[in-house]
């Protein structure tokens, strides 16, 4: 009879604990009470959405790292590759409270003023897409670096193509 009473008491306590009604000092463990021992701890899973492992990564300090979003020359329209990355960012952000800084970049072709405005349009279009996917706009900020932060040489077509991008940076990195 003691075993049944203890098991019932433990079950009621667990139900109250799960419901948020029990406190730690409301029940004391008695000799003979059943204890559940796990053979091994449950495996930790990544918070990266399935299918996004090649577009997002979690770095040191659980900081999100996002692939750069590519853009065509003189365009702020989202390319298919950019949409795929943004879809992953949106799925990650819906389960996260991380704020995002969305940074627009250009190559060096054109005037500095034009490139600054183009970088702004790229960042804003990316943020608007994330907002349409459910990301809270209050958790996003946009800025343009224009042509001022290249990741490759602007002397080649390949380098200029790499510089036409949007980078999404968690604000926890600042």
Structural summary, described in words:
This protein has a 4-stranded mixed β-sheet with strand order 3-6-4-5. The chain has a two-stranded antiparallel sheet with strand order 1-2. It contains 4 helices and 6 strands. Helix 2 packs across helix 3 (112-132). The protein folds into 2 domains: 1-37, no CATH class; 56-173, OmpA-like domain (60s Ribosomal Protein L30, Chain: A, 2-Layer Sandwich), CATH 3.30.1330. Strand 4 (100-105), helix 3 and strand 5 form a beta-alpha-beta unit. The protein starts with a helix and ends with a strand. It has helices spanning 2-19, 80-93, 112-132, 157-163; strands at 56-58, 64-66, 69-70, 100-105, 140-146, 165-170. The chain is of the alpha+beta class and 174 residues long. It is found in: Cell outer membrane. Pfam families: OmpA (PF00691). Residues 58-174 form the OmpA-like domain. Its main location: membrane. Keywords: Cell outer membrane, Membrane, Signal.
Helices and strands, in N-to-C order?
Answer: HEEEHEHEHE
| Helical proportion, percent range | 25-40%
Continuous helix count: 4
Strand content: 15-25%
Kindly summarize this structure in a few lines:
By secondary structure, this protein is α+β, with helices and mostly antiparallel strands.
